[in-house]
């Protein structure tokens, strides 16, 4: 009888221990390259770059099994420049991601912290700028649709569903955290994707309220988006959809995105007019992006990828047009290390407000064209 009781007690202890199993993983990616640009502020330039394709980062990812298909999860991810060792994303310690939450195998995950919006989660993987096949320098002008993660959402609560036979969906809300300004710098987004028989379809929506100085209210720097804003506006509405199809070693896709801005006071990324960006006068603006892309695995180790993006905009009575061609080839030296060579050509026309500016590089001077070529090395751990 005593032996039976002892076995039962030990069994209970071991079952509890099994339910409490946890793991923490250190991971990261380092992307270093040498980039030539034909015109940066009127001069050609050779420079060492970090994150020409994928931003260099390291992080901690953990999970604890709570039993019954439920687990506690967290991610803390730092972004840094490999060329000088400095922290990115406004010098934040964990600027890329920082969240904790609960995840269920059956119902999905709820997380809280600094997180990606639904445009990044759902539409981004269908555009080359949101993947390893193009990344930073393939972004649409000013990364106006945030497919390249120019900003994350602070103070956010996020839900992502489980995978229901290829269908996934999710939503996010970023609080302003201001007692007397509920809508002063808040954000919300939603999206969905569906995969079947080689097809991948996705759509998403993002809205930011008061993510810049607006009349009647001071900018709330503790709100949903701060220090990494793409635009400083009273309201930003971005939506997009995309599709791609994989057949054998090839994948081809199309992406359309649109961003509408009201009370636009400035664009933070480099162009003419104001140092570090474009100063504007509180007017409305509109961007549309059309991207066609493709990639092909020539061998298990060697891939080629390319895209063409046409962007048209309306900004303070001017209607600039951008044409950008992108091409990349990458060779895997191992499962974790690869070398790449990529180039971009951008032309902007029909305006006197902005100059050519490949994302992540300094703007050209009076030239309407800009060309860049990068040779780089990526290592994952």
UniProtKB/TrEMBL annotation:
Annotated ranges, domain Porin: 8-348
Transmembrane portions of the chain: none
Location relative to the cell: Cell outer membrane
Keywords linked to the UniProt accession: Cell outer membrane, Ion transport, Membrane, Porin, Signal, Transmembrane, Transmembrane beta strand, Transport
Assigned GO CC terms: cell outer membrane; pore complex
Span of the signal peptide: 1-20
InterPro entries for this protein: Gram-neg_bact_OMP (IPR050298), Gram_neg_porin_domain (IPR033900), Porin_dom_sf (IPR023614), Porin_Gram-ve (IPR001702), Porin_Neis (IPR002299)
Example GO molecular function: porin activity
Pfam family, any one: Porin_4
GO biological process, one term: monoatomic ion transmembrane transport
Membrane topology: Multi-pass membrane protein
Gene3D superfamilies xref list: Porin
Subunit structure: Homotrimer.
Name of the protein in question: Porin Gram-negative type
Organism lineage: Bacteria, Pseudomonadati, Pseudomonadota, Betaproteobacteria, Burkholderiales
